[in-house]
């Protein structure tokens, strides 16, 4: 057994031994972000997309107290149907492991595990950020702090549109996190490819993204990069259509007194209901798109090791 408190799946271990690039994947999106069975379908397709891109997927979760880097299909299937899994961020991981429980990793916790396992690229849907009304609720995702301190390049479709995108960008700037739009000037907004905000940085190739990641390390800068990869145009729900839906979901959350960790899963579920499932179709499309780019970046990281 590994002296470090995590286990690599046989496939991930083989990739490590062979020097195959690896892409980390989170599990909260499976347990708290999408309903079954679409979550399982999504998880499988994301893994297949990473493989098609020449990298090995490593989905991360804590199962009965053990941190797993890479899940077998059987485990993935079980996790997708688990009702009581905890949602693990930086604050929760150690307690979950110490008490032998099962939990899914958020962006923050997945970054910690990936870094620990020597994986530098991670694909997800959207990162957590500053919630609307945070000036009153103080609800700011731990994902932002994690990006500031853990050296993993995270490929996402921008901050989730349920958030305050402008405040999220401000906090990321304060924390010194590079927000890099991929192939366009605007920050993408999760279900929509465009927001009204110009991204602080833009890169157009996976090669440059990998180079920038390594340059940060050479400069001794801690922390990762956020690659904001727009949802493909044919899958997006445009902003004008989505905004009233988000407003309504936010009102409902307030009426029902939803706070803390439950806010994001509640809002995603409510937007899903209010768009009659279209938000989920878009969510799956953007995750797949991010997985493909993450695989390219991971391959580039390996190529120019120097
Ligand atoms: N991306 C998705 N769906 C999700 C998430 C991301 O497409 O459910 C999850 C991620 O795990 C992210 C979390 O870290 O939502 C943010 O939660 P919070 O706002 O409570 O920090
Ligand atoms: Mn929160």
How are the SSEs ordered, and which strands pair?
Elements: E1 6-8, H1 10-18, E2 22-25, H2 28-31, H3 38-52, E3 56-63, E4 66-69, H4 73-81, E5 86-88, H5 93-98, E6 103-105, H6 107-116, E7 121-123, H7 134-137, H8 142-149, E8 153-156, H9 165-174, E9 179-182, E10 201-203, H10 206-218, E11 225-228, H11 239-255, H12 263-274, H13 278-303
Parallel strand pairs: 1-4, 2-3, 2-7, 5-6, 7-8, 8-11, 9-10, 9-11
Antiparallel strand pairs: 3-4, 3-6
In brief, what are we looking at here?
The chain is an alpha/beta fold. It contains 13 helices and eleven strands.
How would you sum up this structure, described in words?
This protein is of the alpha/beta class. The protein has one domain: 3-Layer(aba) Sandwich (Indigoidine synthase fold), CATH 3.40.1790.10. It is built from 13 helices and eleven strands. Strands 1, 2, 3, 4, 5, 6, 7, 8, 9, 10 and 11 form an eleven-stranded mixed β-sheet that branches. Helix 6 (107-116) packs parallel to helix 8. It is globular, with a radius of gyration of 18 Å. Residues 26, 28-29, 32-33, 106-107, 124-126, 128, 141-143, 261, 264, 268, 283 line the site of pseudouridine-5'-monophosphate.
